[in-house]
Amino acid sequence: MADMAERVVQSPVNHFTVRAIDGQFAGKDFISVDQLGPDDVTRLFEVARNMESIVARRETSDLLAKIGVAILFYEPSTRTFGSFSAAAHWLGASRTLEVQGMSAYSSALKGETLPDTIRSIEQITAYDLIVLRHPEDNSGYEAAHYAKVPVVSGGAGTLEHPTQAMLDLYTIQHKLGRVSGLRVGMLGDLKNGRTVKSLGRALTMMDPGAQFYFIGPEELKMPETEVHGFEQRGARVVQTPDLQSVLPELDVLYVTRIQKERFPDTQEGQALYDSLKGRYIVTPEVMKEAKPDMIVMHPLPRVDEISPEFDADRRAVYFDQMGMGLYIRMALLALLTGKD
Ligand code: NCD
C-alpha cells in the first residue's frame, strides 16, 4: 500500500524542497517555518521547557553524547551563533566545528560554491547536523538539497529565520500566555528583514485570524507576496507609516533594525539608508500611548531604533527574548537528531 504523500515545502526561489515536520522531527531539515504545524510547535515548546530546567540546574546533559554538530556562519552573528554553540555544548555534543567567519576564511573566498562547501564539510567531519547562516535567500534549501544530514537554517538572506521565529513565538507565549488573538505591530525594515517574515508565517500558522500592523517607510514595506500569503491564511493586515496611530491597539510591537548591509553598495544606496535611519525611535515618551500590558520585542542587534532609556520599562522584553533562543535551539538540536 502506498504511503500517504508526504508534505513538502518548496523554495520560493527554485524547485528545491524540504520535507515538512508534521509530527516527525528526527532526521529532517529545518529551513522554513512552513514545515511546521501547530502540534509541532507544541512539541518544540514542551522540549524547550525541559531544556530550561537543564540550564537552571547548571548541569550539562549527555543527550547529544554521540553527536557531531557543524555550525557554519557566512554572516555576522552574536546571538544565533552563540546560542547554537552553547546549545550543542549544554547537551554534551561530543564534536563540534564552529566557524563564524566562513565568508572571510573558508574556500568561499576562493570561489567555492555553497553545495561544494557543504558536501566537503559533511565528508571531512562525518558530523550529524549542520547549522548554516548565509546571505542568499535560497541557501537553506540548497544546503539541505546537497547535504545527507539535517541542515538547520540560522538565517537565510532576507526571507527566512525559522529558529528566530520559534524563539519569538516562545517569548510571546511566555510573556502573554497565548500566541493567538493578538494585534501584532512590526516596525522598521520589513523589506529586508527576515525575522518579521518568518514570525508572520509562524503567527498565521498558529492563528489564522492574526491581526498585523506593518509600520514603516514606503521604501521598506513588507513585500506584496508576503502580505498576500498572510492574507490568504486569514490574517488581517494594516500597513501604515504612522506608528502613533496604531500603537494604542498593539499587544506586541516587534521592532527591527534597518538592514544597512542589504542596501545597494552605491552612493544612492547609502544616501537612501541615511535618509531612513533614525526615522522611528521607540522612547519612553513615544510608548506613553501604548497599553500597559503589551510587550516590545526586537530580534537584536539594535542600532538606534529603541532608545536605551526604554530598557527599564517592564514592557521591554528583548533581552529576555534572546535568552529563549538557547532553550529553543537546544530543543531543536535534540528533536532533529532524534535524541529528545
Ligand atoms: C537578526 C538576523 O540576523 O536576521 N538577528 C538575529 O538573528 N537575532 C536581525 C538583524 O540582523 O537585524
How would you explain this protein's 3D organization?
The longest helix has 20 residues, at 38-57. The strands form 3 sheets. A 5-stranded parallel beta sheet has the order 9-8-7-10-11, covered by helices on one side. Strands 4-3-5-6 form a 4-stranded parallel beta sheet, sandwiched between helices. Strands 1-2 form a two-stranded antiparallel ribbon. It is α/β, with parallel strands linked by helices and 340 residues long. Helix 6 (162-176) crosses helix 7. The two termini are 30 Å apart. The protein has helices at 38-57, 79-90, 102-105, 114-125, 139-146, 162-176, 195-206, 224-232, 243-246, 267-276, 318-336, and strands spanning 8-10, 17-19, 68-73, 95-99, 129-134, 151-156, 183-187, 211-215, 236-240, 252-255, 295-297. The protein binds N-carbamoyl-L-aspartate. The site of N-carbamoyl-L-aspartate (NCD) has 11 residues, from helix 2.
